[in-house]
Write a structure and sequence with these properties.
109 residues, mainly alpha, 8 helices, 0% strand, elongated, transmembrane helix
């Protein structure tokens, strides 16, 4: 085994990512969407959860996009820390339970 493989296999972050892939995927999606919004100067209001836009305008995609929308870098960082700290749920209960849990929490507010 070479040094890079040894580093990856024994690195705590890589071990946690392997144990909680859903957490990692959610974080990557959050970061990529925020970078896209930042790069193209897209206001969070254009993807936010507004009843009128979802029901009357039939913009159903807002129910998903709003859970990945962050208004600024601090919001993204704090949300990412919160999500990463819930990875213990995925490790203990499993990825399916964690995905379902995260899905319901995302839509609860």
């Amino acid at each position: 085994m070479n040094q890079i493989e040894n580093f990856i296999l024994n690195n705590e972050i890589f071990i946690e990512v392997k144990q909680c892939p859903i957490t990692f995927i959610i974080l990557i999606i959050n970061i990529l969407i925020w970078l896209y919004h930042f790069a193209y100067d897209i206001s969070s209001e254009k993807v936010s959860f507004f009843y009128k836009d979802i029901i009357i305008e039939k913009q159903y995609w807002r129910t998903i996009s709003s859970t990945f929308s962050h208004s600024n870098l601090i919001h993204l960082v704090l949300n990412s820390i919160s999500i990463w700290n819930t990875n213990k749920i995925e490790i203990i209960k499993g990825s399916y339970y964690y995905f379902k849990y995260n899905h319901y929490i995302g839509y609860s507010w």
